[in-house]
Design goal:
326 residues, Rossmann fold, UDP-galactose 4-epimerase, domain 1, 2 domains, six-stranded parallel β-sheet, binds serine
């Protein structure tokens, strides 16, 4: 039986991961942890327990871990890259002081911990094409600094105290459920909303800027599978490159135009996001994840685009006929 705490359950990943974990573990408990102002609603609230779980409040976290006999923590609390550039100290506080609170509790209560890393952990000196699993990590963004420190601390608690920490380096994540906020890769989500609504998209990232991206169902599967992996096969732990597709805004908009012919886009490049994007890999090599725990993506750009457009049309209640301008 699994008893899981998801910290950040109302965020972009958490809102879907919590529901997936509840389906996978009907006999266990999956607690939706949230912060004040981001309370769970609807199915997320009705389908299981919810607790205020601020990563900066260690006492509160400990109370929840003891109350529900938590054995696994998904720590998804974070400021994304562009927001972290505006509030670097707060990003460090949440991502690192918060992580230490969780790792300390995990050490004393024998919990496994998943804290995502990201393509943001890499920097301009990293090889951008087929970025190796083990390579130069000198990010220039505060988000990246926190992600490298997260990887190091997570490995430290594993080697020093035996805490079962594991993680993946997520590419930009694309979903049709909860919007991201303040990330460099957010454009790849927003573009679909604009296209489905029949609006022209103003792209903040320049044409020719390639980044790894992934459809949310694959990302959720990765988060579950890495925690279920046979530990004896893991050479790495924090954190694994995982990849499924790499594109730039030109390729993405052309793909959307195949399905929504009238779609238009123009560029108004945001210099903060562009500098971050330029420092990140174009395409990561995920062969270690494939070898050590059987990672394999299922969606490519075409299948994701078909699914995104269909899901957003339903969500936004826009019919195909209306969208085609008939
Ligand atoms: N999606 C994140 C961001 O753009 C990267 O992991 O900040």
């Amino acid at each position: 039986m699994k008893n899981i705490l998801v910290i950040g359950s109302t965020g972009q990943i958490g809102s879907e991961l919590t529901m997936k974990l509840r389906k996978l573990h009907p006999e266990g408990t999956v607690v939706a942890g949230y912060i004040k102002g981001s309370e769970p609603k609807g199915r997320l609230l009705e389908s299981g327990p919810a607790e205020e779980a601020d990563v900066l409040d260690g006492e509160e976290l400990l109370r929840i871990v003891k109350k529900y006999h938590i054995d696994t923590v998904y720590n998804l609390a974070a400021l994304l890259s562009a927001t972290a550039e505006k509030r670097p100290e707060l990003a460090w506080h949440i991502q690192i002081d918060g992580l230490i609170n969780i790792l300390e509790i995990a050490k004393d209560n024998r919990c496994a911990v998943f804290t995502p890393s990201s393509i943001g952990a890499f920097g301009p000196e990293t090889p951008h094409l087929n970025t190796p699993q083990d390579t130069i990590m000198r990010p220039r963004s505060m988000y990246g600094c926190t992600k490298v420190a997260t990887e190091l601390l997570s490995d430290y608690y594993f080697h020093k105290f035996g805490v079962d920490t594991r993680s993946v380096r997520f590419p930009g994540l694309i979903s049709n459920v909860t919007l991201p906020g303040g990330g460099t890769t957010d454009y790849a989500v927003e573009i679909y909303y604009a296209a489905v609504k029949g609006e022209e998209f103003v792209c903040p990232i320049a044409g020719g800027t390639f980044m790894d991206m992934m459809y949310m169902p694959d990302a959720l599967r990765a988060a579950v599978e890495i925690m279920e992996a046979d530990p004896s096969r893991l050479v790495h732990r924090n954190s694994f490159n995982i990849a499924s597709m790499s594109f730039d805004p030109e390729i993405l908009s052309a793909k959307i135009r195949e399905h929504i012919p009238g779609f238009k886009m123009h560029y108004e490049v945001d210099p903060v996001r562009q500098a971050i994007a330029d420092s990140w890999p174009d395409k990561m090599d995920d062969s270690c994840a494939r070898k050590e725990w059987g990672w394999k993506p299922t969606y490519d750009l075409e299948s994701m685009t078909v699914d995104m457009i269909e899901a957003l049309r339903k969500k936004l209640k826009i019919s195909t006929i209306e969208k085609a301008g008939v």
